[in-house]
Write a structure and sequence with these properties.
- With about 210 residues, the protein is α/β, with parallel strands linked by helices.
- It folds into two domains: about 140 residues, Rossmann fold; about 50 residues.
- A hairpin with a 4-residue loop joins strand 4 and strand 5.
- The two termini are about 20 Å apart.
Length: about 210
């Protein structure tokens, strides 16, 4: 639907970037297929490793047991999540537990060998943004198919937000949403956030 929307509104792109994950590459491919069926083709996608998502499963797997041992409140959240599995409460119970773990990771209060830090992840996304901005020429339009982590870091960069606020933005992002930036070599400005003009039916909106 996104590819069809862009084609129908004659929205053109000079470069197509994707993160390295299958879901990121496949999203770009599906969008390009729909775009081509309604008009000219999009440029071939180019993988940028720094647009990868952070390893949330690894973060939870490593940090959750440590937090459970150190904080009774986290242990209770984990127990509530286990009891909620298979019920209508499961998603909310997971999110409450997940937020505590991710905030601990972002704050750097828990460091584990072999687990990339939030600061390392953020630096990688910053490098990708710097490369995009450095190649910018007047009127050039670039689309990047990525995930919530890199998008939230880009918004953080544009608005000078704290790490915790960037994390909160990540949780607010809708699947298949579009966030737009205006940029030159020296400026990076948020122009639109979390929009779904290609999905006017709100029953199609979803999160994670």
């Amino acid at each position: 639907m996104l590819g069809s929307f862009w084609a129908e509104h004659s929205i053109r792109f000079d470069d197509v970037l994707t993160g390295p994950r299958v879901r990121q590459i496949r999203t770009a491919e599906l969008t390009a297929e729909a775009y081509a069926s309604n008009g000219p083709e999009l440029p071939a996608g180019r993988v940028v490793d720094e647009l990868d998502e952070y390893d949330s499963g690894g973060v939870v797997g490593v940090l959750l047991p440590r937090l459970i041992e150190a904080d009774r409140r986290v242990a209770v959240l984990a127990q509530q999540y286990e009891r909620s599995k298979g019920t209508a409460e499961e998603y909310r119970a997971f999110q409450r537990m997940f937020e505590v773990v991710m905030k601990a990771w972002v704050s750097g209060e828990r460091v584990a060998a072999g687990l990339a830090s939030w600061q390392e992840f953020k630096a990688g996304v910053g490098l990708a943004l710097a490369k995009i901005m450095d190649q910018q020429s007047s009127g050039r339009r670039i689309v990047a198919f990525t995930s919530g982590g890199p998008i939230s870091v880009a918004v953080q960069h544009a608005l000078a937000l704290s790490d915790e606020k960037a994390l909160e933005i990540n949780w607010a992002l809708r699947n298949a949403s579009v966030t737009e930036f205006l940029f030159t070599k020296d400026r990076f400005t948020l122009n639109a956030f979390n929009s779904l003009p290609h999905l006017p039916d709100s029953s199609l909106w979803s999160y994670r």
